[in-house]
Design a protein that fits this description.
It is a single chain. The chain is α+β, with helices and mostly antiparallel strands. It has one domain: Maf protein (Alpha-Beta Complex), CATH 3.90.950. The protein contains seven helices and nine strands. The strands form two sheets. Strands 1, 2, 5, 6, 7, 8 and 9 form a seven-stranded mixed sheet that branches. The protein has a two-stranded antiparallel ribbon with strand order 3-4. Helix 2 crosses helix 3 and helix 4 runs antiparallel to helix 5.
């Protein structure tokens, strides 16, 4: 059974591969700020969990009907999104070095929550047969002795610019993180236990995805 990952995140792809799944990746092309703005105009402010779930679903649904290597999708489609919450503020990708630096100054020595949203669509046989979604969260505590030079050096690598919260636990920022409470893979951007539960909810076995 094939898994299609509606994401271009290298971290999510590496995580799935390490778990024995080799998905085909598709860029969903979702305008995330516009999607969130439209939802908030209709429903009011979204929580971090609601935001990542909204975007995960939008990404998965955006690739319905797409083709991969000239063949229509025939399998499960996974959309995912992550955001970091600190003091009630929601942080996605900083994109700019100055923004990433500011966030690190704010979060060193502190604990925040990484939220990951998941939306799984059963598209086996080339048609939508069902869908299920869920969010997962894990708290992340940063070392309190990170100095400004370390922050500047880390931001200078470019790694934090394209990841939620401006950090990666599975990359260069790992040594700056002292504690994680929750499912560790959630902090990478995809909760493997949550995904397994969704696969089972749609009537399949996780092991069927092993390549």
């Amino acid at each position: 059974m094939r898994l299609y990952l509606a994401s271009t995140s290298p971290a999510r792809l590496a995580l799935l591969r390490a778990a024995g799944v080799r998905p085909l990746t598709i860029s969903p092309g979702v305008d995330e700020p516009a999607t969130v703005a439209a939802a908030e105009a209709e429903r009011g402010p979204l929580s971090a969990a609601q935001t990542v779930q909204l975007l995960a679903r939008a990404k998965a649904e955006a690739v319905i009907g797409a083709e991969v290597d000239g063949a229509p999708i025939d399998g499960l489609i996974l959309g995912g999104d992550s955001a970091f919450e600190l003091d009630g503020a929601i942080y996605g990708k900083p994109h700019e070095a100055s923004v990433a630096r500011s966030r690190w100054h704010a979060q060193r020595g502190r604990t925040g929550v990484l939220h990951s949203g998941h939306w799984l669509i059963d598209h086996i046989g080339g048609e939508v047969r069902g869908a299920a979604g869920a969010t997962a969260a894990a708290s992340v505590t940063f070392a309190d002795d990170i100095d400004d030079a370390e922050i500047d050096a880390y931001v200078g690598t470019g790694e934090p610019l394209q990841v939620a919260g401006a950090f990666t636990i599975d990359g260069l920022a790992g040594p700056f993180i002292t504690r994680v409470e929750g499912e560790p893979s959630t902090v990478v951007g995809l909760s493997l236990p949550t995904l397994r539960s969704l696969v089972m909810r749609l009537g399949h076995r996780w092991t069927d995805l092993w390549s």
